[in-house]
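To make this tangible, this section ends with a sequence with its structure tokens:
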Amino acid sequence: AFKQVQGEEYPTVESFMQKYRLDAPAALDRIKEDRPITIKDDKGNTSKLIAEIVALFITAMDKLKLEMRSMDDLHGDLKDLSDNLSRLSLIPAGWPSREKVNTWLVTLSAMQANEELDETQARR
């Protein structure tokens, strides 16, 4: 966004912030690190992220118990679960459960929206 106003009047982000008397050190850090707010991470949000992961896992399990097995029913929750697991820096990259979620996500992505997991797949 700064690139839209960058020029002679505002050669740096700091000059823009000084002109408008902005005091936003966290925003300045994000800009300097090229880490926009749209890219989520777990810095300061670890507890919230863990709660979301647990809720998504329980939701996916409940859907399977209720015999909701279609790609349409499960894909969104598993995608969100995978995304949140990726954001949580406490979990190592090769963690087997993360890999399992990603494997199921690939399986569901290969299916049509109305296709369903069979009984054996749902029990895994």
